[in-house]
């Protein structure tokens, strides 16, 4: 079955524009306006989505607010049951959804299928975790605090926040949407989803799987449109009780403008790979390829700078070069390793970083080559701190190597970054690895493996400009609730068996 056909036919208006989802129905924007989604490979319009107005956003917010009131009274086991159903439907329809990922974000075909399956698993795990942790509260007694008798019993429970605004990024429009939707729903919240333009059609297909699972009307809503028209309006909307955002530095602007509501932000990284003299260089090279070049480097957790000890740098660079030469470059449909980057402006930005490094004397391990949005993988050796690529995120298949003379120099470079998402260290000495991990100012350090967010139940968080709060299934559920307490006051102290 192809995207937009079969069970997905109702999300498409004729054969032209995909509809938005409001109050359990697929709708067209009243203005008749739409937004084009350009295929990164063909550079032609692939899909169109509705350009929703502020008026339409207001209506969506109203529906989300009223649906949440009823959902909060829906038994936890029933919420979990619906999530399990949605997960199964999502996995059943992995191919049409993967087709959208291939066409609108140029994700390699196999990785696109993996993203959908991983998302189904994430939703199921969330349902199970929610049943476990949301069914538990705390019971405290007053006489543990100085000066108190045992006259107060405090009962705590976890209650929903209300309406969660979820904004996923282009690189995982399905997986990083369900990582917000699942926790929000199991905790009793309703959802307004604003997909990225590239990735919107994949998101709409995913939302339809939740629709088919039979969630109540208005509980999940998905608006599409121009960020310039509805972006600030959504993030500053008084009806929003929590924002979960993954993306670039737009998140910093959102954080400054948002009201007094909980924020969960993941805003990118400049993940360093520190390589010590005793590292297994074949293992390092394999991880640099996986960590630096998967999905053409368009991952927040990609290795974005290699900090190699001078004594092993020559040998490491040779090993990485040999593996780069084996990468398959071309269209995502052919499941190539390196595919076109998401937009022409991204390709131009990457090229700017490459040209800056060239002017400043970096060693090019391969010839720089670009056709349209397709950029050939490039390893830049002898990068120095005065080059932009030493600090900025290319979000493309270009990886700098900085040679270091001490571990301290590597840690210093890592910690001088504005980002602090993940990092990795390669060494056979676990004691050194632990010391380096503790010294690195990042949310996670991987020892002897490339940075990665998954498995999806692991905590995932960034320091500094990399984000606010911690994700991962358990942490996201806990972030999307408030604690409510009821205190029973007794007329006289009561001691069990007393
Ligand atoms: O770029 C999004 C970030 O969350 C990366 O995820 O799974 O590729 O490590 P992952």
Structure description:
With 498 residues, this protein is an alpha/beta fold. The chain is 38% helix and 22% strand. The chain is built from 14 helices and 28 strands. A 7-stranded mixed beta sheet has the order 16-19-20-15-14-22-23, with helices on both faces. A 6-stranded mixed beta sheet has the order 11-10-9-12-13-26, with helices on both faces. A 4-stranded mixed beta sheet has the order 1-2-6-5. Helix 2 (76-92) packs antiparallel against helix 4 and helix 4 (109-134) packs parallel to helix 5 (175-186). It binds SN-glycerol-3-phosphate. Residues 171-172, 299-301, 452-454 line the site of SN-glycerol-3-phosphate. SN-glycerol-3-phosphate binds next to loops. GO terms for molecular function: glyceraldehyde-3-phosphate dehydrogenase (NADP+) (non-phosphorylating) activity; lactaldehyde dehydrogenase (NAD+) activity. Residues 26-485 form the Aldehyde dehydrogenase domain.
